[in-house]
Specification:
six-stranded mixed β-sheet, ligase activity, coiled coil, Immunoglobulin-like, cytoplasm, Herpes Virus-1, seven-stranded antiparallel β-sheet, microtubule, alpha+beta, 36 strands, ubiquitin-protein transferase activity, single chain
């Protein structure tokens, strides 16, 4: 048998770290005190209401929500879960044992069973721990006597005399169940928490909990597989007994594992001390190098200082000699007192030369040495960056790689990365980025810590290039930096709009999705019926579609993608004054190229057509991007045909009157031309045949965000 004093770890509540008091069984089969469940649930719901703020977690000194629970609160807030909803809502409870969000259902705490078996075991443990403390009779007159038995029906403790008095022979109370002295009184019949007047008599094998017959008939367990309580009792008891017997039979193996673990504990202690010594020696080497560099720098400064002081002091002494009755001037004054011409001439010549030099130095006075020590400034910026990256490197921690296909920059920058291996060994990541600037000599990386494998950045400048890199961390161990990936931001702020389903929209040929962000051209029976009358030539109609928002000023950028199977798509901008002309121009493409008597295939007709259109458009189709035939364009038609980028962008600069067409993947300008921006400018799209266009959805810019410029 297992000693009662050896199981105290199983009797401790994971929330309050004390012995269980009225424990409840959670759906995850873990136990928590009834009071702790209420406190955790209130703190958790308050944290959800306050957005997971720390101030909302101060109501209970016994319960503290862990950092992982706070992360789950943030995740639930991001999913948009709302309180006070009209629809039935379930109660989420963060289990302190398995750290999972447990759904308690609509009844919440009231739907949980009380674990009476665990209460009994806790009470036995308490009695064994306080065997010297007696349980007194509840009915004796002062002073009370020590109780000898407790009545489970009366929920009270009695001495022998009081028990006979309150349970007289021949009455109904004489049939009450009594046990030894205890303070743990539990009901004789376990009632259903959902149907309070019904006792549980079945066991749900799906939910693994006792249920009543009403739960099976029309409750939440109607379609579940259930069994009788006696069968479940017998089956579970046999399984538990077998498992306990197996563990007891493996006692020698358990002891061997304990011995091995104790050796591992000692080995871990020794290895940690050795690692500390090696790390300390590494830093001592750095300290020694720094001290040597420091001493050399200080000696150089001291030597330079002494030389400069000597020069300045010599210059001070020379100027002091120019004062009256002092130094050179005093000596000259004494020479002037000489009356013998021969003696005076003998010394005056040399003295006059010295006086002239002193006069010249006085006129062009300049300090003999500099007072600043700018040449002795130590530049440690690079060394600080290197020391900032100083960490434990492990070959076992894989270097992450930035996924350029999943990463993109539009209204925000979404940077995604992944580990080369199948499993992710890193606990967290650090993403660093900086703006590429040729003028700056030193690079300053901006750093952000990430728990997942992607990060959205919103503080980037327009029309700029940025370098990104990432490294993984597991505790104090870090991986190497990933390869730097350079990405370009849009040339202007992102402009958000939707396809207009009213102005000129042809619902017979075009089909919009529900969000009006995608349009598809259907070349169906109307086109076939229209071409049935044609015998020669080819007259086809472009179906136009504009954006629902116009631009009056400023510089704006929007992006979109064209499906690879698209036959013909034209994109560009149109002024509001020419929209009506655009939709009334029915036969937009009239090409004699395929007429039997055309006589040529030059394609020059397309150029004259482009110049006569009411809007500025470029042509896309057959997985190609066609640069319009302009005087500035290449003369060779083949050089005007480019592969179709996966994502295209248009940049409209109303102030300069120019529009540019970009490869939105690398933000490279493919074609730019002048445009008349005298009125409101609208994005315009034209489709013919089988084609589809999808607008790139902005990450932050919502519809109508640029209301000042629109």
């Amino acid at each position: 048998k297992v000693a009662i004093k050896g199981i105290e770890r199983e009797l401790i509540c994971p929330a309050c770290k004390e012995l269980f008091t009225h424990p409840l069984i959670l759906p995850c089969q873990h136990n928590v005190c009834h009071k702790c469940v209420k406190e955790i649930l209130f703190a958790f719901e308050d944290s959800l209401a306050d957005g997971g703020s720390e101030s909302s977690n101060q109501s209970s000194p016994r319960i503290r929500i862990s950092a992982s629970s706070m992360d789950r609160i943030d995740r639930i807030n991001r999913t948009g879960r709302k309180r006070n909803s009209l629809t039935p809502r379930s109660t989420l409870f963060p289990c302190p044992s398995c750290q999972r969000d447990i759904d308690l259902g609509e009844r919440g705490i009231n739907g949980l069973f009380r674990n009476f078996t665990l209460e009994t075991i806790v009470e036995r443990y308490r009695q064994a721990a306080r065997a010297a403390i007696a349980i007194m009779c509840d009915f004796c007159k002062p002073p009370p006597q020590e109780s000898t038995k407790s009545c489970m029906d009366c929920s009270a403790s009695y001495c022998n005399e009081c028990f006979k008095m309150h349970h007289p022979w021949g009455t109904a109370k004489a049939q009450h169940e009594y046990v030894g002295p205890t303070t743990n009184f539990r009901p004789k019949i376990l009632m259903c928490p959902e149907h309070e007047m019904e006792r549980v008599n079945m066991y749900c094998e799906i939910c693994r909990r006792p249920v009543c017959h009403l739960c099976k008939l029309g409750g939440g367990h109607a379609n579940h597989r259930v069994t009788t309580m006696s069968t479940a009792y017998k089956t579970l008891k046999e399984k538990l007994s077998k498992d306990i017997e197996y563990l007891i039979s493996k006692e020698s193996q358990v002891k061997a594992h304990i011995t091995q673990l104790e050796l591992l504990l000692k080995e871990t202690e020794c290895n940690s001390e050795r690692a500390k010594q090696e790390a300390s020696q590494s830093f001592e080497k750095l300290y020694y190098v720094l001290e040597e560099k420091k001493s050399a720098a200080l000696r150089a400064i001291e030597t330079s200082k002494n030389i400069r002081l000597e020069k300045l002091q010599s210059q001070v002494e020379e100027h002091q000699g120019l004062l009256e009755n002092n130094g050179l001037v005093g000596y000259a004054q004494e020479v002037l007192k000489e009356t013998d011409p021969s003696c005076f001439v003998q010394i005056a010549k040399q003295l006059h030369v010295r006086i002239q030099k002193a006069t010249e130095s006085l006129r062009s006075f300049r300090p003999a040495a500099e007072t600043t020590f700018e040449d002795f400034v130590v530049d440690t910026a690079k060394q600080e960056d290197v020391l900032g990256d100083l960490s434990f490197h492990s070959n076992g921690l894989e270097t992450p790689e930035i996924n350029e296909e999943q990463s993109r920059i539009y209204s925000k920058a979404l940077i995604s990365w992944e580990s080369p291996g199948k499993t992710d060994s890193a606990d967290s990541y650090v993403l660093e980025y900086h703006k590429l600037n040729k003028e700056e000599e030193s690079v300053t990386w901006q750093k952000t810590e990430v728990c997942g494998k992607s990060k959205v950045l919103s503080d980037l400048d327009d029309d700029s290039s940025y370098a990104f890199r990432v490294r993984g961390y597991k505790g104090s161990i870090c991986s190497l930096w990933s390869r730097e990936v350079i990405m370009h931001t849009p040339p202007a702020p992102v402009f958000s709009f939707l396809f207009d389903d009213k102005c000129g929209y042809n619902n017979e040929h075009l089909q919009l999705n529900s969000r009006r962000t995608s349009v598809e051209s259907r070349a169906g029976f109307p086109l076939l019926l229209g071409s049935e009358r044609l015998q020669v030539g080819c007259y086809t109609t472009l179906d136009y579609l504009i954006g629902d928002t116009g631009i009056a000023k400023g510089k704006h950028f929007w992006a979109f993608s064209v499906e690879a199977y698209s036959y013909l798509v034209k994109v560009g901008v149109v002024p509001s004054s020419k929209i009506q002309k655009l939709f009334h121009n029915t036969h937009d493409v009239t090409s004699p190229r395929y007429e039997q008597d055309s006589g040529h295939d030059s394609g020059s007709e397309d150029a004259t057509f482009d110049s006569s259109q009411p809007c500025t458009l470029v042509t896309i189709g057959m997985k190609k991007f066609f640069i319009p035939a302009t005087p500035a364009a290449p003369k060779d038609p083949a050089s005007r045909i480019l592969p179709l980028p996966s994502c295209l962008g248009i940049c409209l600069d109303c102030d300069r009157g120019r529009v540019g067409f970009y490869d939105a993947g690398c933000m490279k300008c493919l074609y730019e031309c002048e445009v008349d921006c005298s009125g409101l400018m609208y994005p315009v799209f034209a489709l013919m045949g089988g084609a589809a266009v999808h607008l790139e959805e902005a990450d932050t810019a919502k519809y109508g965000e640029y209301h000042n410029d629109i």
